[in-house]
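[[Encoded backbone]]
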Amino acid sequence: MSEVKYVGKITDLPEAPGNFIENASKKVVFGPLHFWPDYVMRCFDLKPGAGEKEPHTHPWPHWVVIYDGEGVFCIDGVEYPVKRGDWVHVPGDHPHYNYNSSATENFCFLCIVPPEGDVSPLLMGKGC
């Protein structure tokens, strides 16, 4: 019988399925299979220049905390520069995208969505 692990490092978590961002890592910190049945907290680590630049829309919101680097979140056509210590709320049904604006540093953030939002938006328009 395996022991339940209550503390760990994000870097030790496996790469999560459904990562739709090239040159980026996605790891599920908490979710239905790991202590949080109602939501999924993902950690994204985008290499310099990585990210999306085409908006997409879906019914669920995102709650985001930036914990390293600098990037841009675009919501409803407005680009918001963000950096370590900032938070972002993307309401459901609002067009949005994000990218790493640095040429040299990674852009890392935690993003919370409901379970139905934890899939690729490129797969039949679902998830992100």
Q: What stands out?
A: The chain is about 0% helix and 40% strand. Confidence is low (pLDDT under 50) at residues 121-126. The beta strands are 24-30, 40-46, 62-68, 70-75, 78-83, 87-90, 96-100, 107-113.
